[in-house]
Automatic annotation (TrEMBL):
Organism placement in taxonomy: Bacteria, Pseudomonadati, Bacteroidota, Bacteroidia, Marinilabiliales
Protein name (Swiss-Prot/TrEMBL): Large ribosomal subunit protein uL30
Domain (Large ribosomal subunit protein uL30-like ferredoxin-like fold): residue spans on this chain: 4-54
GO terms of biological process kind: translation
Keyword Ribosomal protein: yes
InterPro entries: Ribo_uL30_ferredoxin-like_sf, Ribosomal_uL30_bac-type, Ribosomal_uL30_ferredoxin-like
Pfam families reported for this sequence: Ribosomal_L30
Organism the protein comes from: Marinifilum breve
Family according to the record: Belongs to the universal ribosomal protein uL30 family.
Amino acid sequence: MAKIKITQVKSKIGSTERQKKTLEALGLNKINATVEHEATPQIKGMVAKVQHLVSVEE
């Protein structure tokens, strides 16, 4: 399965509690933090919910 690299580019201040928990579940806790995950439908769905806070590279 393909890997995707997710980087947090905006602060989670002002986001809903659900979006904050989604970022934590992805493993992101600071701006410019980067994590690598498998490109599963679950991970892609999580990224879609916080797409305004992160950037994604395939």
